[in-house]
Structures are given as C-alpha cells and as structure tokens.
Amino acid sequence: MRFWKEYRPAIHAAAPWTAALLTLAAGVMLLASGVTPSEPYRFMRLLEITPVVLIEVSHFASSIMGLVLVMLAFGLRARLDGAWAASMLVLLVAAPLSLVKGFIWEETAVLVGLAANAAVGAWWLDPLIGLFIAFVAVKEGREAWRGEACAACSSPLAAVAGADDCCSDGACAHST
Q1: What is the model's pLDDT at position 66?
Q2: What is the DSSP letter of 151?
Q3: What is the pTM of this model?
Q4: Do 38 and 102 touch, CB atoms closer than 8 A?
Q5: Which three-class secondary structure state does DSSP give residue 23?
Q6: Among the residues of the chain, which ranges form H helices?
Q7: Cα–Cα dist 107/30, whole Å
Q8: Residue 95: which of 111, 76, 106 has the closest Cα?
Q9: Domain boundaries, the chain
Q10: CA–centroid distance for 112 within its chain
Q11: Confidence band (pLDDT; 50, 70, 90) for 61?
Q12: Can you give the pLDDT at residue 73?
C-alpha cells in the first residue's frame, strides 16, 4: 500500500502523456492502414458480402478518424475532458470501420482494447488481445514458411478481373 501512496503523484502526472501517446499511436495506425493495400484473401472475402462503395467510404472515414485521433492526442496531453470523450467516441467508431475496410480484425482489437482500457479500466484486456494477435501472427508466419500462403496472387484486383488461374503452380491454399 505504501508503494501506491509514494508513486501516486508520478502516476497521475504520467497518465495524460501516456493517454496522448497511445491515442497518437492509434491515429497513426489508422492513417498507415488507410494507405497500405489490404490483404488479398481478406479483401476478396469482404467483396463477397460488402459493396465496394462501403469499403471505399470506410477507407476514407477511417483515415479521417486517424487524423482526428492525432489531433485529440494534444487535447489529452492537456487533460481536456472533451478530448477524452471525443477520443472514446472516435475509437469506438473507428473499430467497426477497420472491419469494413478490409476485415482488419487486429486493428479493431487494438482500438477496442484501448477504448475499453481507458473507459472502464479493463487493463486485463490488453494482454489477452496481445496474446491473440501473437498467436495468429505465429500461425500465419508458419503458413508462409511452409509455402501454404499464395505469393502469386498478391493483387486483389487479379481475382476481381477474373484471373482465376493466377496460381499456375497450384501452391495457393485459398484457391477452390
């Protein structure tokens, strides 16, 4: 108990900076995700159930949300209550947009985890999300190492254009 009493002022002084840095990182993540191409397999599966217009609008809106989060980081650093409320709103709106723009569930998990941690103190959610993302990354890395992932069909537009024979060597695990 004495530990918390001694370090409480330092923790309270570091909290705005920590929140600002995490919000800035989330905004940069959304901006970077908006300019990088989607993973082809996920994109093709998403095209089957979602209109292209909705995917494009979610890309644009997600980039705007990323820019807003970058600006809100400055308000969080200054301990503005409005910045905290706006950050929670933007995080919770940006999370489903990540799913619609390319089924980027890792990004959605990070955004929801950050919002849950800040809103209700769900500190236990961050390690669980991290372990889940690490498990999937190891699984996908193992598939790529074994050659189960398709390198020939790197463009999602190849399948949209009707190039069903992009895997001439038959190494594509996603072909039906």
Answers
A1: 93
A2: S
A3: 0.69
A4: yes
A5: helix
A6: 2-35, 40-49, 52-77, 81-102, 105-120, 125-146, 156-160
A7: 8
A8: 111
A9: 2-123
A10: 9
A11: very high
A12: 92
